[in-house]
Amino acid sequence: MSEPTQHIASLRKSYERAELNEEASHADPLQQFDQWIKEAIAAEVPEPNAMTVATVAANGRPSTRVVLIKGYDERGIVWYTNYESRKGQELAANPFAALQFHWVELERVVRIEGRVEKVSAEESDEYFHSRPLDSRIGAWASPQSQVISGRSVLVANAAKYGAKFLLQPPRPPHWGGYRLKPDNWQFWQGRKSRLHDRLRYTQVEAGWLRERLAP
Q1: Residues marked as catalytic
Q2: DSSP code for 164
Q3: Which is nearest to 80 in space by CA: 41, 148, 135?
Q4: In the chain, where does the domain assigned CATH 2.30.110.10 lie?
Q5: pLDDT tens digits, residue range 153-192?
Q6: One-character DSSP codes across 173-212
Q7: The CATH number of 17-125+173-212 is which of 3.10.450.710, 3.30.70.360, 2.30.110.10, 3.40.640.10?
Q8: Which of 43, 117, 189, 206 is deepest in the core (most CB within 10 A)?
């Protein structure tokens, strides 16, 4: 084993910041998520709104990427992207995904699974027009996930669409929002001696079944 690999294998951390128990947690996972993400924002952890999105292609191969959550309510978790990207193509073939938030400083992880659908055109329009101008132009300029010859392609595209649309670029037809409707949540709180707290919420006919899982 090489020296760098040995160093990685020896890394250790004791998780001792907080606990998560059935008595103190919410019966509704959305309320628990709301509490935790607000605590992450208040703690000023780096990019508390960043989440990993995992999708699976038609051939069964999974892929992940980091995106930013843009909204959440009883209908689900929302983010925006290029519908023609790899994740867009994979969601078109298999409309299920998994999300993960990792707030390292708080020693917390949230995992969410469910079915994904596009948000309405009205919702996508409203969010698109709230974005900074350069981000709106960027949605036109980047053929996301496609092979390009160099960064100059993006720069040239941005200049082209900037000149075409000036200060009022419309939302591209290939760009918009997705909403994941959760049917499974997991909340993980790091604990000492690797005896972590882990609560799972599974959607059942009567609401949500909350269970403790071994770490």
Answers
A1: 194
A2: H
A3: 135
A4: 17-125+173-212
A5: 999 999 999 999 999 999 999 999 999 999 999 999 999 9
A6: TTEEEEEEEEEEEEEEE--GGG--EEEEEEEETTEEEEEE
A7: 2.30.110.10
A8: 189
Sort strands 50-56 and 197-204 into parallel, antiparallel or unpaired. unpaired
Token pair 């949230």 is found at 110
Residue 73 pairs with which residues in a beta bridge? 76
The span from the CA of 102 to the CA of 187, in Å, is: 10
Residue 170 identity: P
Instruction: Name the CA dihedral angle for 188, 189, 192, 195, rounded to a multiple of 10 degrees.
Output: -30
Structure token digits, residue 214: 């071994």
